[in-house]
Structures are given as C-alpha cells and as structure tokens.
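Sanity check

After download, print the first record. It should look like this:
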Amino acid sequence: MISALTPLEFLSRNAIAYGDCTAEVDGGRRFSYSQMQHRVHSFGAALQQAGIAREDRVAVLARNGLLPLEAHFAVPLIGAVLVPLNIRLQGGELATILNHSGARILLGDADLLAPLQAVGGDIPHVERIISDYETFLSEGSKPVAPHAPGEEDVISINYTSGTTGVPKGVMYTHRGAYLNAIGEVVEHGLSYRSVYLWTLPMFHCNGWCFPWAVTAVGGRHICLPEVNAERAVKLIQDEGVTHLCGAPIVVRTLSEYCSRHGIRFPSGLTMVVAAAPPPPAVLRAAEAVGIEMTHVYGLTETYGPHSVCAWHTDWDDASLEKRALLKARQGVPYAVFGTDMRVVDEDMHDVPADAVRVGEVVMRGNNVMLGYYRDPDATATAFRGGWFHSGDLAVMHPDGYIEVRDRAKDIIISGGENISSLEVERVLYEHPAVLEAAIVARHDEKWGEVPHAYVLLREDAGVSEQELIEFCRERLAHFKCPKAIHFGALPKTSTGKIRKNVLRANNRAPQ
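Expected structure tokens:
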C-alpha cells in the first residue's frame, strides 16, 4: 500500500484532473495539461529512441521555456538523470561539467550551444547535441516506456553556482524533489488558481523545485526567457500572475520600473526572495508597488529553500524598519520536509538563542542532498558530524528564528574584531544613491584586514567616496566602515548573486 514518492505523479494526475486547463505558456504558445503530458511522453520516447537508458545523464542548456520545463518530467520518466546547465558559463566551464557528469546527450537553445560546438572534441561523452527541440519531439513516435523510480533514485544533478570555486555536482532524489515541491505548495499558498512567472532560472536548483510544485497543484507556468522589467510587468498584468521568485536584484528591477511608470499591482502578488536579505529600502519599494515579499534561505545542497521567515500577523502593523529587520531573518525550517536546522559552535554544540553568539548553520532532513556526484571526500566533509555544514554564520534568536550574518569566508577580521559584511552592506543600501553594494576584506598592514566596498549607484545619482564613508560612520562603529569604495557594476552569477569571490580576487591583485 506504499508507493514511491516521485514528482512524476503530479503531471500524470493533473493531465486528468486539469486536462483542458492551461499548463504552460511560452510566448505565443499555450498548452493544456493533457497536451503537456503528451509532449513529455514524446520527449521521453525520443530520448529512448536516441539510446538514452536508465541512469544516463541528459544535459539541458536553455533559457526558461518549454524545453527545460518539460525536461523536468520527461528525463526522469525514463529513469534518466537531468543535468541542468548554467547558461552564463563559458564553453570550457560547460565542457568540464559535461565531462564530470558523463552526459550522453545535450539539448538546448541554438545560440547557447554554439560555444560547445567549437569544443566538441573536449566533450567525448556527449554523443549528440540537439538545438531544435520541437523537431526532436517529433522523433518520439513510439510509445514511451516509463521507468518506475525508487525514492532514492537520482532525479537531477545540479552543479553549484561557482561563487565558491570549482562547481560540485549536487545529487537530488525523487523523494527529495517530491517533498520539496510539496513544501513550496504549503509555504507559499500555491493552488490551481496560481499563475507562476518564471523569473528564476529553471537550471538553478531545478528552479527551487517550482517546475514540480506548480504542476502539483495544476497551476499555470508562464515562461520568461530573460528578466526584462517591461516584459515581466506585462505578463504579470495580462496573465494575472500570483507568484514569482528571485534574488533582491529582481525585486529592485521590477519595483523601479513600476515606480517610474506609475504601476501598482493589485493585492495577491507574492515574490519569494532568497540570497541577501532584502534591506529596508528594497522592502519599501516593493510594498509601494504591491509586491509582498517572503524571505527564504537555502543552498544548492538543500534543493533551494530550506527555511522561511514565517510571518506573524501581529507583525503587520510594525514600522517599516522593524518589518525589514524581521524579514531579513532566515527563519525556521519549511513545514513539511521533516527537516532540522541548528546554529552550532566548532564542537557542534548549539549556540545560545541570544541573537548575539555566532555559529555555523547546519541542516539535515529530506531536503538535503544525497551527496556530491563522484566526490566522496567532499560529501564526507560536508556531512561531518551527521549534519550538512552550510558554511554560513548565523545567530539564533530567542524565538527560534535564525539570522545569517555572513558566509564564513566573508567575515572580516580587523584588528581581532569580527565584522559582518552583511551588516555594513545593509547600511550602504540605506543611502538613496546606492543601488547595489558588496563588502569584502582587503589586506591592511596594520589591521590585517579592513572592509572594502564595491558600489553601483542608481542612474543619475551622485555621491562621493568620502560622503558614503561618512554615511556609514554615522551609523556604525568606525572600525566596521569601509576604508575605500570602488564604484561600478558588480559581477554576478546568473541568479543575481554578487560574486564576492571575484571581488576578493580583485582585492588580492596588485594595485
């Protein structure tokens, strides 16, 4: 009486329950749930006819659209393993991942595949590269032969974003994907009325499992290949979008566009935000245009979000500054994962819940990865002591909510004092001229390390280096303030995270 948990059930069920309802929209193309299932089965059959078998890896290099969405169902349908590729990587980087994963077939957008055509000899495992997805679907003329998966079968291998060095292959299971999808449904109120706009890349942690979550409730997927504010706002208005996800930069992009054009969304638009906590200025701008933000926290190794800043109704009437402080917390574990999260010292003892003592965030449960693909040493290190070690430093509040203070490597130790880069960044974001900010350590002969700021100003805004430093000195202990500021664009990953590893490398370079 027990069946294996797999997100494949979501589509097979809703092809019946919501067969005539719109499942996916990509530009001018719209397909119902029954049509989506037919396309997925054709995709699976085409893969089998191309020689793809159980446990083979299938790589996808594509912008948000029908191909990556349908691959989340078609590839595991035949027992194969999906390998979503970051579209911002260069040819050599992609070749490294393809070789490590051992992918036998690669599908994607023609322009994105072009760099790999030039290094074809460097990816010997890839037997076939497909740049015309619709033509490939037509090859699936025979009925697909589905594979009944086990819960612990690998459904996807997701390579880390590279902000911390060489990407590692994070293995997700059918069970983990199923439970994470249900977690998104519960925490964010998804239903058959939900309309989800794809601003988050589907290759990033399998789109935080939303390809499966939206399908689980019979909601509608709206594909957006790239985050363009004008196009996104039009889709939100025309399609009645209720949910979207992304980094704070996406919130700022939409908020600023709406503010300039006098647009305010009606109530009911939820944006799930991860990465850096939203500073008060971003929260203020989002609320002004009708975006309700929910802050989540997680890593590639936890299928995306692991915890959520679960909101209390008695916080609704708090001041903006108070609400921003509350929303900046990473909160508590998702409700349905069977998960746990602690903040511990070096001896794995829980730090006091005093919002002062800093420790490392460790997790375990159904939404923690199976391990790193072909890397047992890294897996053992990550799971030392029986918990997954995030590398994030946090405090535990008396109410049981965690608040991340920094990545372990982003803490700046200046003259023996620990400086949280996030604390300094939050102050910088309060300046009306600042659009983006990042703090990293810079070597100093006297203090060992001092904070160095990288700042992107708002269009037509002006502020000098000294003025911005003085702004910080009025709000922070002076030793925490940046000693120098570099103005200009900040390097980012494809998901909008600022690449501090690049900034740190710049600081190590000769001046």
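If your output differs, re-run the checksum step. Summary of this record's structure: The two ends are 67 Å apart (CA to CA).
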